[in-house]
Amino acid sequence: MVSLHHSDSYEAGRTSSPGVPRTMESNESYYRRRAIQEIVAARHAITANAKERRRSLAESYVRRLSELTGSDESFLLDANPARLQEFA
User: Fold this and answer.
1) Using one digit for the tens of pLDDT, what is the confidence trace for 11-57?
2) Which of these, 84, 76, 73, lies nearest to 55 by C-alpha position?
3) Cβ neighbours around 85 below 10 Å, total
């Protein structure tokens, strides 16, 4: 049996700052953020295998984002890196 122990100061739903509630990121924000992170990582990848892996992950997040929003988000895959932060 495995048991998890938290420090006495731990409160569920709280950040490390006392009295400040933690908010959960929406699925749309999460998928968009992760897609952008993977696109940037693919562009900075050194090996072809790493670039392919990162691009595949980015495509997966963009696909999930498109399914969630009901719109075509694939433009993110070919966006200018400087403009990606506008979409984050």
Assistant:
1) 444 455 667 777 899 999 999 999 999 999 999 999 999 999 999 99
2) 76
3) 9
> For residue 39, which of 73, 71, 82, 78 has the smallest C-alpha distance?
78
Q: Name every residue whose Cβ is closer than 8 Å to that of residue 73 and which is 6 or more positions away in sequence.
A: 32, 35, 62, 65, 66
Residue by residue, DSSP assigns 20-68 as -B--PPPHHHHHHHHHHHHHHHHHH-SSHHHHHHHHHHHHHHHHHHHHH
State pTM to two decimals: 0.69
Q: What's the CA gap between 38 and 58, in Å, rounded?
A: 5
